[in-house]
Amino acid sequence: MNQQSEIYNLKSEASALQAQLVLWRRDFHRHPEWGFQEFRTSSIVARHLSSLGMEVQTGVGKTGVIGLLEGSQPGPVVMLRFDMDALPIQEANQTDYVSQTPGVMHACGHDAHTAIGMGIAQLMAQHRDELKGTLKFVFQPGEEGCGGALAMIKDRVLEDPKPEIALGLHVWNDQRVGLVAAGSGGVMAAADIFTIKVQGKGGHGAQPHLCIDAVLIASQIVVALQSVVARNVNPRQTAVVTVGTIHSGTAFNIIADTAELTGTIRTFDALVREDIVRRITDIVENTARALGGGATIEVKAISPATINDDRAAQFVREIAIEVLGAERVTADQFTMTAEDMSEFLNRVPGCFFFIGSANAEKGLNAAHHNPHFDIDEEVLPLGVAVLATAVWRYLGGKTTTN
Q1: Does residue 313 register a pLDDT over 80?
Q2: Which residues are catalytic?
Q3: Which of 79, 198, 313, 363 is most exposed, with minimal Cβ within 10 Å?
């Protein structure tokens, strides 16, 4: 049997898992769990990996799961990472698998990632005798700004055994279903969160001359922050500064004495980040002072930029072309969104790629982190096929059929 036939067989085996993949994904979607609270999800994952004869470790980074699949012969260690957590969003979809947890939903596709990971585990377990090396499954908690990757790293997820390459995927509703984007170098931005606290002087809404209006100060800060990227960042560079929340005031006729703003900074270049943080700090402190009040700012790093290894990205593209066809594979992968897969890729060379999950004709094209987010589930076996083939090829898989 030639190599191309072997790939077709793996793709066919992945397609045969479609019904099971949908069941898993919809079950996780009905029962979403926040970061570090993925107790139900992780227990299902751990039971599945154990049933496949893997060595399983639970409680890694609090709720993370590791599964080791040993091949028939020694060889390299390949790590596959899948995130499991949901978001604090009230789902607005009308489906029979809508979230049953008020205020929580899988609005970014992590339910699909977990299902794909379980599918790859099942498929690769059937081919373990053909593998030369070890496959390390990493099901990660707390990706959505909770530091789940670092928590697992602190619990030695990258040791015993240490992976030679790390691979992962993200379903992507900015792309039509089945299109793979695997770029080289920086593909996702570094993310910071900032918190601004404004101090004014409260009083009656009809006596503004006796007060220092925290709402006015906060409003001026928001407007002034729009100049940072437009006027302080080299146009050849890229950055985003967004204010996401403002909380202030208690009644229509009371001038608020305090206000709190939160937002995010997205960058790729460390020097650009430093300049932005310095400029934001100047604006916050000086704007408040000019209006008679005061303000402080705290900036906290969430995750570094996601940097794909050039060779690993090329490898993934080649595999995806073989599995899906050249017309469905691109190296154009660039977004200012962030991912803490970056923490793993800072320590182990690898590739984190996107696989399109949108289908406008079915109305399945809402943006990520949107209460209407949903995916075309045709992406599930395709994700399994691409990653499973990459693993099988990397670990020297050979069919037992001549």
Answers
A1: yes
A2: 85, 143
A3: 363
